[in-house]
Structures are given as C-alpha cells and as structure tokens.
Amino acid sequence: MSRKSEIIDALIMKIKEQGITRDFTLSELADSVNIGKSTLYEYFSSKDEILKEAITEFINQSIASLSLEVIGENASFEELFKSQMTSIFAVAKESRMIMETMTKDIAECVPVSIREDMKAKMQETRDVLLKRFHDFFKIGIEEGVISANLTEATVFIIRSLTVGSIMSYSQFPGTLSIDVVVDELYRAVLALTN
User: At 146, phi and psi to the nearest 5?
Assistant: First the structure.
C-alpha cells in the first residue's frame, strides 16, 4: 500500500468513526500514519484536498459494498429484498456517516469542490436502489406475495418504514442482529402490501 493510500485510509477510518468533520488536524492525521505533518504536503496540496480524496474514496467503498450487482436471475422477491436490505443495513451500521451522505443535505463541512460530485453520486445510487426495489416488487407481484394494487400512500409508508428502519438501525446502540431486523422489516412490508 502506498503512503498516500495509508493517509487516505487513516482519514477514512476517522470519517467512519466520527463522520465528516473539518476539526481533524493535519498533525493528528500525520501522527496516525507515523509521518511528519510536512510530509503530507508531498502527497496533497491542502487539507481540503486530503478531505476530498478521503470522502470520495469512502463514498466509492460504501457504494460498492451496497451489492449493486445483480443478485440472481431466479431469486425470489424475499431473497432479493432481504439480500439488498442486509447489505444496506450493514453499511448503515458500519458508519453513520454514509447515512448522512445518503440524504439530500450534504454536510456543510464537505469541501465545495466535491459537494456536487457527492450529490450526483448519491443521487445515482438512490436511483439504482429505487429501480432495484421497483424491480423486486414487480417480482413480488408476479409471485403473488404482493398485491398489484398498491396505493401511493402504501408505497410512501413502505419507503418511510424502510428508510426510517435503516436510519434507526445505524444509530441503535444495542446488538440487534441485522438478520432479525431485515426479517421483521420483510414481514412488515408483506403485511402492508396485502
């Protein structure tokens, strides 16, 4: 691993633990990778550049871990739903910051130079996930486990329940199993859709 990657990884670890903040010091970052503060400037021109690269890499890693690849051609609605939700809950639990970046309001402390890129990447990810869930629900309708006549209000409640569950789980201090939460969410979605 290159020294530059070590620096980025050290800052990503801080982001995962504390969210996006500008209150980190370059001295603190340099100490965490056993280099002098001036050595940071051999790899980056400014604190904002370090933050920009770390945030960009963090978002890319988080999005990659959402399992956006095809889960399986013959998978059932239950398998598709639970697989996708499990990966989303795992990312949410790993880092509360990813939940902050998944919202439309990007933290003010993010360098202006990447705000628009972040918003675009998050919107692209939301669009992919929404399309995926739409496709899952079509399979559920074909399987007969979901009613074909969902109202706009029901769809709204399902989205709210899902997003609220993810946000709550990301901040839940206990040791609730992701599988238990996803199973209960699946049952609630079935109850709402029939």
Answer: -130, 140
